[in-house]
Fold this protein.
Amino acid sequence: MNSSSVHADKLGADGVAPAQQKAAPNDERVRKEGALKRFLGRPEFASLAGAILVFIVFGFAAGDSGMFNLDGVVNWMQVAAYLGLISIGACVLMIAGEFDLSIGSMIGFAGMMVAIPTVYFHWPFWLAVLFAFAGSMALGWLNGYLVVKTRLPSFIVTLAFMFILRGLTLALSIMFANRTIVSGVGDLAANDWLGSWLFTGNLGSGLFHWMANHGWIATMANGQPLVAGIPKVIAWWLVLALGASFVLARTQFGNWIFAVGGDANAAKNVGVPVKRVKISLFVFTAFCACLFAVLQVADVGSAAADRGLQKEFEAIIAAVIGGALLTGGYGSVIGACFGALIFGVVQIGITYTNLNSDWFRVFLGVMLLVAVLFNNYVRRRVTEAR
Amino acid sequence: MQRIRCKGLARVLMVTALAMSFGAMNATYAANEKFVLISHAPDSDSWWNTIKNAIKQAGEDFNVTVDYRNPPNGDLADMSRLIEQAAARHYDGVIASIADFSVLKKAMENVTAKKIPLVTINSGTQQQSEELGAIMHVGQPEYDAGKGAGEKAKAAGIKSFLCVNHYATNPSSFERCRGFAEAIGVDYKKSTLDAGQDPTGIESKVSAYLRNNPGTQAVLALGPDSASPSLRALQKMGLKGKMWFATFDLSEEVAKGIKDGSVQFAIDQQPYLQGYIPVAVLAIMTQNKTTDVATIQAKLKANPKFQARLAEYGLAPLYGPRHISSGPGYITKDNLDKVLKYAGQYR
């Protein structure tokens, strides 16, 4: 994107999001595009194709191993859903041209903010959850504020926070609890109104019981269904993905995000509140990390100082596979979700084949390269020098 | 030009990725049973290498395939997903460490609910193992290990001791001290020192304690991290080699101490057995279609291949009525060379 006054005018007129361009009927500046070409040009195309490819590969390699049974599907969907939550946050932030490396440390820190007050100060679970959300969003705001104020690359600022938060998690958990893993939150969460409503247990357990009674799904020896329902993290993932996609595609704020990432100066010149947009996206990313942490603590019943290690890179990889550009201004939440799905399927899928799981990271690296090259190639072919 | 080259490269990468995935498909074995061992160790943890080697050899001896799985970053939440995955894959048997009972309970119940035999290893207690519905636990019960060492000390005429605890944040560490104290008949609370993690701090705390309690006859360190500073403290007080000293686990410095006589012995939990025995137990169970622990143990003891491995690496398991303990084993002057020869591989 070249910043020029002409460009800024265009940007002011109709934004940069391609979805927003309403063509006047006889405007010679607007090209007619075929539907297929438009589909191929969408940022999420590569990750969608990749997801289909991965499913085909594992369908052959692990089709009869139980990977595609109900309990197998729920298992890898959970892995994908957890990663999906934070990759949505990482993706919208990357579209705005910024980066957050503190996501993983934030997960550990937020988990402790839930667990320590609940177990050691005897707060009700719902209060601890609100405290954790408030705390991590405040930290997200601080991240954003520092990036905007100091003009330092967000890479540096959030790299610092990656260490600060990981260190704080360890130090504070030793200080308050004298241990690095705080357990005993599970029952407290399940018996809490907010916890049981939003974070623990499964959705549709009635339906699953009914299906089990009809013998449609596998049951345990006592007649209970093997899979008690859809874990809430999967529902959260869908809600968050749809919400973020809607904001990006259909709202003014979504246009601002694309504008800020495409060319912050030009955006500022046409009146987009660049600083506010960036800071609020850092807050949103912290919110995603905290949501991940709360769901995980409610699920496994404990917080630990090493939770979320390296998850920031996994989130960024998922977003990049999903078509987001490191330089900002381009990307798609749906793509990032497919990236997370590929991630979950491959990570768990490898354990269904007889391949040693030591190879998982090799796969991941190769996949990342292939996805980015493929993305670039398709984009160049379809958009013809945007 | 640019575009064509990129196309070629992309194509090469695509082919590579596909070839890799097809390679994964063709790597099927013609084994009878498939088991999986799930540890809590991150990729960087070298201690589990011994266990990886052990499951490989047990697989050869009993003609079964054993997969090794671990959470790459040592995250227990990831570990519980791996256990769920093992349940979904219909393995013939699952082996897992009880890294944290409350975190893994739900996932392990998935395994037992599907009637897949489960053996627990390494960390965790025998009670927890039984509560999870596992067949048995193969590990080193902390209290028993301390008690075993204490009985050896008692035989040497020890009546008082200091327990140097460098990881007091873990409640099970005190079990080691308690076992030793009860074996020689003293109160463990008076003899236990919460030494902290810092080597300098450990050294000064140990010398302070020994000055305040000059009648102390023995020192028990709970690991190499507290053994080295404690030995330094003894050396500076001129007590090294004169005072009875034992430690948990081996390090180079401890090995040197065993050689020169300043360390009586190191208590070894024999990780090889934590890998080998569960595989052997599951194989015997499925191949003989029995769930009776006594029968399984008898068959295991009678197995010539297993006995050959024990003799080769100088290992000795302890058989209980239900559970088999991998430790305590003792590393003394007599077997030190053998241990060092196989250290990190089979010991």
About this structure: The radius of gyration of chain A is 22 Å. Chain A touches chain B through 59 residues (CB under 8 Å). The first helix of chain A runs from residue 5 to 14.
